[in-house]
Amino acid sequence: MPAEGPPNRDTSAPADDATGPTDDRPVAVRTTGLTKRYGDDVLAVDDLDLTVYAGEIFGFLGPNGAGKSTTIDVIMDYVRPSAGSASVLGRDAQEETRAVHERVGILPDGYGLYERLTGRKNLEYAIALKGADDDVDDLLDRVGLEVAAADRPVDGYSKGMTQRLALAIALVGDPDVLILDEPSSGLDPNGVRLVREIARGHADRGKTVFFSSHILSQVEAVCDRVAILDRGRLVAVDTIAGLREALDTGSTVTLTVDAVPDRLTLGELAGVEDVAVDGRTVRVRVGDAAAKVDVIDRVRDDGAAVLDVAIEESSLEDLFSAYTGGSSTGRNARSAESSGAGASRADEADAEEADAEAAEEQR
Ligand SMILES: Nc1ncnc2c1ncn2[C@@H]1O[C@H](COP(=O)(O)OP(=O)(O)OP(=O)(O)O)[C@@H](O)[C@H]1O
Question: What residue intervals traverse the membrane (predicted)?
Answer without folding.
Answer: none
